[in-house]
Amino acid sequence: MAKRLVILGGGESGVGTAILGKKKGYDVFVSDFGKIKDNYKEVLALNKLPWEEEQHTESLILNADVVMKSPGIPDKSPIVKKLMEKGVPVISEIEFAQQFIEVDTIGITGSNGKTTTTMLTHHLVKQGGLNFGLAGNIGKSFAWQIAENKHEGYVLELSSFQLDGIVDYRPHIAVITNISPDHLDRYEYKYENYIAAKFRITMNQTENDYLVYDADDEIISKWLGEHKIKAKKIPFSLTKELNEGIYLKNNTIISNITNEEFTMPINELSLEGKHNVKNAMAATAVAQLMRIRKDTIRESLSNFQGVEHRLEKVLKIQNVQYINDSKATNTNATFFALDSMAAPTVWIVGGVDKGNDYDELMPLVREKVKAIVALGVDNEKIKKAFESVVDVLVETTSMTEAVKIAQKLAEKGDTVLLSPACASFDLFENYEDRGKQFKNAVQNL
Length: 445
Fold this sequence. Notes:
Layout: E1 4-8, H1 12-23, E2 27-32, H2 38-46, E3 51-53, H3 58-61, E4 66-69, H4 78-86, E5 90-91, H5 93-98, E6 105-109, H6 114-127, E7 133-136, H7 142-148, E8 154-157, H8 160-164, E9 173-176, H9 191-199, E10 210-214, H10 218-226, E11 232-237, E12 246-249, E13 252-255, E14 262-265, H11 274-289, H12 294-303, E15 312-317, E16 320-324, H13 331-339, E17 345-349, H14 362-368, E18 369-375, H15 380-386, E19 392-396, H16 399-409, E20 415-418, H17 431-443
């Protein structure tokens, strides 16, 4: 009898897993407690895969041999609890899919910078002539790409939720960009649980694998000091010279991790900002470990186009620069954004707060922000934090209105920055939808 694979969640990772599962001979069923988008329903129908939406039918789910849970579904959800009680393995798409490949993966995680680092790394390995897929938290699902079997390796962006659901997954090169409090609502508000989730990326690595990490990050250094890992450590740093690693000296990136020393002046990087120097260091480490030529690495770092919704310059109108940083869904990401502002800033902030502590932003807000537009259903916490710090704070629940207010508040030479520091689900479908609405509103000014 075929093994029964039940998939919770009919989104990108769910549908991809369903296609791979069917191809590998599983008896597949997809169940989504919400609505499944039409384009995914078409794919499911085309592949003759059974599905249900707006319910979880227990008789069709609890008989599973293995369950793939989409990253958006918390462990606390009733159906997941019942499966756990029955002892049914509940895994992530990454774990399910990895058993069907023999090729290497590069796994990248971190609270911030992981999308940019993942896309930059993928750009470097592709420019270096390697046919690697790009998947994980981004693009076409890992499982789907494995079902199509066109790649000689994969660069994966991995969230803590995806790492929660791994058992045997082992990246050949793992990257941890940084760790700061995020998604604590999913980790019983215990920071140490979230930190442990991130470090699952290295738990199955062997002496032949690598862990690339930010040596300036206190949380990472502390954890590595207290736990033994097998992988070879490759640190990068902006502040200290490393005997073996990647560091900054005289505004030049220097890497001595392989026999070939690599150097690149940071003013030649296509991305601006200190945090992007770190992202470039992480990507360079991977590219060198993958034996990509130095000239190719240098060229790729200088022509990389950046990520949509991440400090994306939209338009200049009446000498006011509008910047879309909708992808900043926590305070740490917004810290980087405010830190890189050179002009007085009208800051659009707000959404679903994930247990944010706004204290770390105070010095930057005092120094750079002239006015705040709070865009959210509930702005109380933001008001309480910043009312006394800025001269003007206006509340709204519409993006079009937020942009119009910002335009009124901005003068020539100012910047209007959308960097919400919060999730988007109170008013938008996701951060992409929020960013697109911002760009539309700016284009219609």
